[in-house]
């Protein structure tokens, strides 16, 4: 027998209710989360279907989402690596300044950094830069 899109993804294309479309309802009335919880408690595992993992309602959409998520994971790995590199470079600057008798923090430079992120990314860019500065300050 050929598997249907629904069987392959766990998605149900002809239901409007999101939970039904993601395979959480079964004929015996047991929801996916409920069964997963029971499996967890029993120490057994229950694999989620592609539809449930991605929120997709079709096999095609599930494939697009899975592929794009792999790219996002790869990008996040690179971003995390760059942040760690930034922290190390920032530590070099702070160490040089403190060793020379100066202060760890340089507020005018922080304003420049905030401005660059705001210019590129708008208001959330400022919040992102503040988090980066928090990560980078005081790590020597
Ligand atoms: O550029 C500096 O002077 C730094 O010390 C680096 C840095 C940063 O991580 O961008 C960190 C702390 C300072 O308060 C300002 C900026």
TrEMBL record:
The keyword Electron transport does not apply. Residues 59-140 form the Chorismate mutase domain. Keywords: Isomerase. Its EC number is 5.4.99.5. Residues 1-64 are annotated as: Disordered. GO terms for molecular function: chorismate mutase activity. NCBIfam families: CM_M_hiGC-arch (TIGR01808), PRK07857.1 (NF005894). This is Chorismate mutase. It comes from Streptomyces actuosus. The lineage of its organism: Bacteria, Bacillati, Actinomycetota, Actinomycetes, Kitasatosporales.
């Amino acid at each position: 027998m050929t598997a249907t899109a629904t069987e392959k993804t766990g998605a149900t294309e002809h239901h409007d209710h999101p939970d039904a479309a993601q395979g959480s309802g079964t004929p015996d009335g047991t929801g996916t989360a409920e069964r997963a919880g029971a499996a967890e408690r029993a120490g057994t595992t229950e694999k989620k279907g592609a539809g449930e993992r991605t929120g997709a309602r079709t096999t095609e959409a599930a494939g697009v989402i899975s592929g794009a998520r792999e790219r996002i994971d790869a990008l996040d790995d690179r971003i995390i690596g760059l942040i760690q590199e930034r922290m190390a470079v920032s530590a070099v600057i702070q160490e040089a300044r403190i060793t020379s008798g100066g202060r760890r923090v340089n507020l005018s430079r922080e304003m420049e950094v905030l401005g660059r992120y705001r210019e590129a990314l708008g208001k959330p860019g400022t919040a992102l830069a503040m988090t980066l500065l928090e990560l980078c300050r005081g790590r020597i």
